Each structure stands twice: as C-alpha cells, then as structure tokens.
Amino acid sequence: MRDLAVNWRVGTLFRRRLKRFWAEQWRAWRTALDWTVWVYFILPLLWIGGGTYLDIWHHPPDWLRQLPMWTGERLPLVVVFVGRLRTFAEEADVLFLLQRRTWGRGMMLRGAAYTAAVLLFLTALVYAVLLPFFVAVHHFSAATLVTMIVYTWAWACIGAVWRNLLEARFSGFRKWLVKTAVLLLLAITYLIPMIYWGSSPARLLPPILIGAAAFALLLRVKLRARDAFESDTQQEQLARLASTQFLLRNVMERKPRIRLRRPLLLRNSKRIFKRFDGETLLGEMIIKAYVRRFPLVRTWLAFNLLSAVGLILTPAVIQPYVAIALMLLFSTWITSHWRGMMAEPYFAQFRWPDAVKRKSAGRVRFWLVVPSAGLFGMICGLKAYGAWGLLAIVPGVLIWIVINSIVTSTMLLSDRKAEEA
C-alpha cells in the first residue's frame, strides 16, 4: 500500500506539472493568436495548404516524381536532431524530491514516456507530410511506412536522452565537439539502415530492436546519474520559456549572458610580445580578447576552412587573385572586430593617440590573418608546383605583409581626410 501511495503521489505531481506547462504555453500563444490572426492568416493557410496537399496526393507533380528516394529517407532525420528529454525538474526539488530516489525515478520515467509520446507525434507528422512521396509516387505499403516510423521514433528517443546526458557532463568547447560527434554518429547509424533496408520491413526490424536496446541502456544511465540535476533544471527552464522567447524575439532586447569560464586558449595573463610601446600593448589586448572568445575562434576556423575548399576548387590561373581577395575580405572582418573592441567601455576609457590606434589595428590584422595567408599560399603552390609548392607559404606571407601595410596606409589617409573636413 505504501508503494501505491508513493506512485500515486508521484503521478499526481507529474500530471500537475504537465498541466501547468501546457497552461503556460497556451497563455503565451493566446496573446499572439487572436481572432484576426486566425481569420486572416491561420485558417486561409490551412485551407490553401490542405487543398495543395490533396492535389499533390491525387495528381503528383513532375518535380515530386523526379526527386530521388534518399530525399524522403533523409528528411525524417530532423526529428532525430530536435528531440529533447523532458524531466520536469524544478529547483525546489532539491529540498525533497532528490531525497526520495523512488520519486526521482518515477518523475524521470514519466518524463521519458512523455518525451517518447511527443517524438512519436512529431515523427508521424513528418511522415504524414511525406505520404504523397512514399505512397502516391513510390507505392510503399502500410507495413513499410509503419516500420519506418517506428525506426525513426527509436532513433529520436536515443538522441533525446543522449543529448541530455551530454548537457550535464560537458561544457564549453568539449561539449560542442562531443555534441557534433554524436550528431554525426546518430546521422550515420540512422541513414545507413534506412537507405539500404528502408523499403523492407523485415530487414529494418533488427535495427529497431538495437535502437530500443540502446534507448533502454541510455535511460538506465540517466536514471543512475547523480550530477545532472542542475542541468535538468536549466533545460526545463529553457523549455518553459521557449514559446515566450520565440514570440518576443523581436521585441525584447537580449542581454549578453555572463559566463565565468576559463578560456580555451591564453588562459594566463602572460605577455605575447616583448615590446612595451602603446601599439603593441593595445594590439596584444585585442588579440587576447579575440582568441579567448570561442565564437570568434569558431568563425575564424570556419572562414579558413571554407576559403581553403573554395581555393582548391579554383583554377590555378586565378588562384593567387582569389587568395588576395580572400585576405582582403578577412582583413575587413578583423578591422570591424577591432573597431568594436575599441568602442567597448574598457578600451574607450584610455585616450590612445591616433597613431597608436592605427598601428595597433595593423598589428591585430597582421597576426590574425597571417595563418590564412600562409595557408592560401601553400594551397596555390601545391596546385601549381606539387610538393615544392609548400615553399609558397613564404611569398604568401610576404604578400600579406604588403597588403596589410597598404590597408593601414589607407586607414591613415581616410582618417586624415576626416580630420581635415
């Protein structure tokens, strides 16, 4: 009887929190979905969309017939990527819920069941949209579609629990790296069986059983986790505020989040350059501020990667000109970053002379772009001269030195003209 009472209490608590969550979401959306929105936007959209869907079902257009099979097999992957485990944890649970392991397990299992139900609904919705492609064009049977839905649902549940575990155990760059690796692993393990055995329900059953076993194993790991309460409360708070943030995204001004985490690079306040003149000190501070911000470093890496791929695909005749254009483009972004840093209150409180500012901009621009210049020179040399082309890193850096001095001179001339005016 005691266990029944505990289960009843846990179930009542879960139902109350679930009811309160949907009441909050409805109140948020009710402020935006008044009768004018329903009459002039939503109902006409549903009418037109429903008519278009029925027309595609009865008369599939040519573009739908020409789509390859892998298009319909890969689109449901979005459900695998968006799933999030709901635990309905609150900060006040630390007072009593964590002291009763049966209560915590009961809430977690009910949250997992709710997450699975929501993901099943989303999976069925995606396949309902794709029904004209699978049934009207490729004539899939009902058993095949049900098997594909169950398979996608299993992998979506795996992704939801797995991402929840990663949120609690990693932070910073490691969390971004591990989550990216997990997304790639989920995509590979989902797509390979779907592409090869998606049209055969019998062959897709073993991957479904493997997925169900993996989901049960991850859920068991989640139930035994002892250091995930703070992460669960943060994720639940974001889930409750998701609708409000979406509706007010263009109304409320976002305040920057203050993170007291050690940077990945240059963690200690040591000098980079030996000189103590003004332009060296100012340039060093801005370079440190740049390198210590992971979003900027990630953008820097992405630009170099995309530029390198584009340069490799460029004909050898125009490669040097494309490399110079990429250097100029990159230097423009670095200059805008320098101007933004100079406008911050910390740097603005110092009265730097104009000459010091210009030379510091050239120093920042040089050191942040010189690795790209060397990479671009090496790519151009390899394509033109083979292995000996690796030595082209030297002329690439020399060309960048000349470009950087010209850009600095141009800034100096433009500033003089502004002062004279």
From TrEMBL:
It comes from the Bacteria. The chain crosses the membrane at residues 37-56, 111-134, 140-164, 176-198, 204-221, 295-312, 318-336, 366-385, 391-413. It holds the Pfam family EcsB. InterPro entries: EcsB_ABC (IPR010288). Keywords: Membrane, Transmembrane, Transmembrane helix. This is ABC transporter permease.
